[in-house]
């Protein structure tokens, strides 16, 4: 969520202390900035999904393997990015086609920006793993600290020392460098579960595992790739038609999207961490609860932000000194129309990361290609002869709507071919009815008797129920009753799987693993919770 703040802050300070040509330079460089998010999603998202799936399967070695693979690939790629940026600096800048007024600022801003790229990439990927390793507050804190330093230095370098636009990129570089140093605390934390296993990683295995990570992370990463192409093409259009003013308007539109993305992408990316665990365990009851609440929250936020920009666009424009320009009507109209994209964006983005979490790459790919590239370009081309430059701003909401319609049609086609699943979220038919959820607050909780009665109705033998009672008793006794145990019970017919999660001491899992049959008990740590699975053969 916090990674978007740097772009917003830099744009506001640059437009305030330097001017609109400098702000236009930031929009010219935006495709390169977005390019970095591709690698954060490619290795961060793809790596964490595979690592979490291994955790859900109680494979700690496999989980560490994908963590190590993802981080090593990120480091190698980051070094290559740095070399390419400096060796081909002039070619990269010429490729972006900056206007004459923006070119000096692009040249001044880019050196520190290039150095920031590998730092931000490594930090972004690592923080994704820290977040899903039961330390989301620390992961967010690191990025927040980096951005606070960036904000303070932006003011000092631009407003006090008048260092020019290069001061803004220097502030960002220092902020993210400090953030990366802060992550050292995680590496020395005894509670972390992701660990480097470089000694066990062979070159061939690393290449194969990196390819696996890329396959899983590609739909999310391709969103960044297509966004880079789209922003690049739209920069050429608005820059060619309106000059620096067009780039300034588009930059404010991108900033508005980044602001709402702080909420939308925050919730959506969180789904990619939680969904693999619950989906792998067929916990569709809790999965439905999480997805429903996430969609409701993001839609409400989107509606509020859209309404604000429709009613009072100057509330955003004033931060970029665009609320009193000679073309203020054109600027306000662009912001109002563009803001209509936020509501369909919220829903399509939630679907995208949900499909990522359950490894439905075709569905997530459909959303990505249409919403981030083909949709906006198609509608711009279609509508430009009729409404001119307004077609650019209108193409974004229409593109998101088209992506939702297209993926809904595709899912219907898949549903007809594969009757095992139903609905947009691929819920397994009939399994919810065979699922029970219980929450115990003590080992003598009345809910436990209700659960045991249900097991007896499924013809479970007394010895299995007694074993389950002992496991529950061990959890509460070892934590002095100061835990809640969430229990998922699923009847598969040939077997009954009972999954228990609690927030207690991790040492308890070792005691359970030693005290009970290894054929029936599996333990792991997922999302900061102790995870115990007890298997009962079907009656």
From TrEMBL:
Compartments it resides in: Cell membrane
Keyword Transport: yes
Transmembrane segments: 32-53, 65-89, 109-130, 142-161, 167-188, 224-243, 249-278, 290-312, 335-354, 366-387, 393-411
Name of one Pfam family that matches: MatE
Keywords: Cell membrane, Membrane, Transmembrane, Transmembrane helix, Transport
Membrane topology: Multi-pass membrane protein
InterPro entries, A to Z: MATE_fam, Membrane_Transporter-Flippase
Keyword Protease appears in the UniProt entry: no
Annotated GO MF terms: antiporter activity; xenobiotic transmembrane transporter activity
PANTHER family reported for this sequence: MULTIDRUG RESISTANCE PROTEIN YPNP-RELATED
Name of protein: MatE efflux family protein
Primary location: membrane
Taxonomy, superkingdom: Archaea
GO cellular component assignments: plasma membrane
């Amino acid at each position: 969520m916090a990674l978007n703040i740097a772009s917003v802050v830099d744009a506001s300070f640059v437009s305030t202390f330097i001017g609109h040509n400098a702000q236009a330079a930031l929009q010219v460089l935006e495709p390169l900035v977005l390019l970095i998010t591709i690698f954060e999603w490619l290795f961060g998202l793809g790596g964490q999904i595979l690592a979490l799936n291994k955790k859900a399967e109680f494979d700690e070695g496999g989980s560490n393997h994908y963590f190590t693979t993802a981080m090593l690939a990120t480091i190698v790629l980051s070094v290559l990015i740095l070399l390419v940026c400096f060796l081909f600096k002039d070619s990269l800048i010429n490729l972006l086609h900056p206007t004459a007024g923006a070119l000096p600022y692009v040249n001044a801003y880019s050196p520190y920006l290039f150095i920031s790229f590998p730092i931000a990439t490594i930090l972004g990927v690592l923080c994704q793993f820290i977040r899903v390793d039961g330390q989301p507050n620390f992961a967010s804190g690191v990025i927040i600290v980096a951005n606070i330093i960036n904000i303070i230095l932006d003011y000092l370098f631009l407003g006090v020392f008048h260092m020019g636009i290069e001061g803004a990129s220097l502030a960002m570089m220092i902020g993210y460098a400090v953030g990366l140093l802060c992550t050292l605390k995680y590496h020395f934390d005894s509670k972390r579960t992701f660990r480097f296993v470089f000694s066990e990683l062979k070159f061939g295995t690393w290449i194969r595992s990196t390819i696996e990570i890329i396959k899983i992370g590609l739909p999310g990463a391709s969103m960044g790739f297509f966004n880079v192409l789209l922003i690049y093409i739209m920069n050429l259009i608005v820059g060619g038609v309106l000059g620096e003013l067009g780039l300034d308007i588009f930059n404010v539109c991108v900033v508005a999207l980044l602001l709402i993305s702080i909420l939308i992408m925050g919730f959506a990316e969180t789904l990619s961490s939680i969904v693999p665990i619950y989906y792998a365990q067929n916990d569709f009851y809790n999965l439905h609860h999480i997805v429903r609440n996430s969609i409701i929250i993001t839609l409400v936020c989107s509606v509020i932000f859209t309404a604000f920009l429709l009613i009072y666009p100057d509330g955003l424009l004033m931060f970029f000194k665009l609320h009193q320009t000679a073309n203020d009507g054109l600027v306000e109209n662009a912001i109002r129309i563009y803001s209509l994209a936020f509501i369909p964006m919220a829903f399509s983005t939630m679907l995208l990361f949900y499909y990522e979490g359950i490894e439905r790459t075709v569905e997530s790919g459909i959303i990505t290609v249409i919403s981030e590239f083909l949709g906006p370009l198609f509608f711009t081309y279609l509508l430009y002869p009729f409404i001119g430059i307004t077609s650019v701003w209108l193409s974004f909401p229409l593109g998101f709507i088209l992506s939702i319609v297209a993926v809904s049609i595709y899912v219907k086609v898949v549903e007809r071919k594969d009757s095992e699943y139903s609905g947009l979220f691929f819920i397994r038919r009939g399994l919810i009815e065979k699922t029970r959820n219980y929450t115990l607050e003590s080992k003598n909780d009345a809910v436990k008797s209700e659960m045991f009665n249900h097991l007896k109705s499924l013809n479970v033998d007394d010895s299995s129920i007694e074993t389950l009672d002992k496991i529950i008793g061990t959890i509460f006794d070892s934590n002095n009753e100061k835990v809640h145990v969430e229990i998922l019970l699923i009847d598969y017919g040939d077997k009954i799987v009972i999954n228990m999660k609690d927030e207690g001491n991790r040492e308890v899992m070792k005691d359970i693993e030693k005290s009970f049959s290894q054929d029936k008990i599996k333990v792991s740590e997922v999302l900061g919770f102790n995870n115990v699975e007890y298997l009962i053969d079907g009656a």
